[in-house]
Design goal:
Order of helices and strands: HHHEEE
Shape: rod-shaped
Oligomer: single chain
Radius of gyration: 32 Å
Structural class: alpha+beta
Length: 174
């Protein structure tokens, strides 16, 4: 009598259930990759928002510098010095003619309102003493919107600032 011949190779019986383990490992690795991708996306969005705030700070500092250049009489007199308090303008210089001092007050009121509306927890200071030429230092600061994160042992939110310096010359020929 002939022995029964097995059509399956001997290794086929030893591999039973191994494909299920491979699928589980693959699903685990795929899940980890997707979670890491989501983390990268989240970080990317945060850095993009931070870059937008820096760009706005540069734009706003440049804007007030251009306003100073356009109103040299008040700038040389030191009218653009600003400590960060509330500025009000009694005259709407868009609708009526203004003196250089009134225009400086209008510029600061309009500009500080724009800074406070654009940047979170904005802080502003403009320092300069009356002289010819006058050097103004413009500091625009803001804090990160992520108030739940702390970056130091003091527990405070991360603060950013942009500092710009502008020199205004009174040109007697203009």
């Amino acid at each position: 009598m002939r022995p029964k011949r097995n059509d399956k190779p001997a290794r086929a019986h030893a591999q039973r259930g191994f494909s299920m383990l491979e699928i589980l490992i693959t699903l685990f690795l795929l899940t980890m990759w997707l979670l890491a991708s989501a983390g990268v996306q989240s970080s990317s969005l945060q850095y993009t928002k931070g870059a937008a705030f820096r760009t706005q700070a540069v734009y706003l500092a440049t804007e007030i510098g251009e306003r100073m250049q356009a109103n040299k009489t008040a700038a040389i007199a030191g009218s653009y010095a600003y400590g960060g308090g509330t500025v009000t303008s009694g005259t709407d210089c868009m609708a009526a003619l203004c003196t250089p001092t009134a225009l400086a007050s209008f510029d600061l009121a309009e500009w500080s309102a724009r800074v406070n509306a654009t940047l979170p927890n904005a802080t502003i200071s403009i320092t300069g003493a009356a002289s010819n030429p006058i050097n103004y230092t413009i500091v625009v600061g803001w804090s990160d919107r992520r108030s739940d994160r702390t970056y130091s042992t003091s527990g405070s939110a991360e603060l950013f600032s942009y500092t710009s310096t502008i020199t205004v010359f009174n040109d007697p020929n203009s």
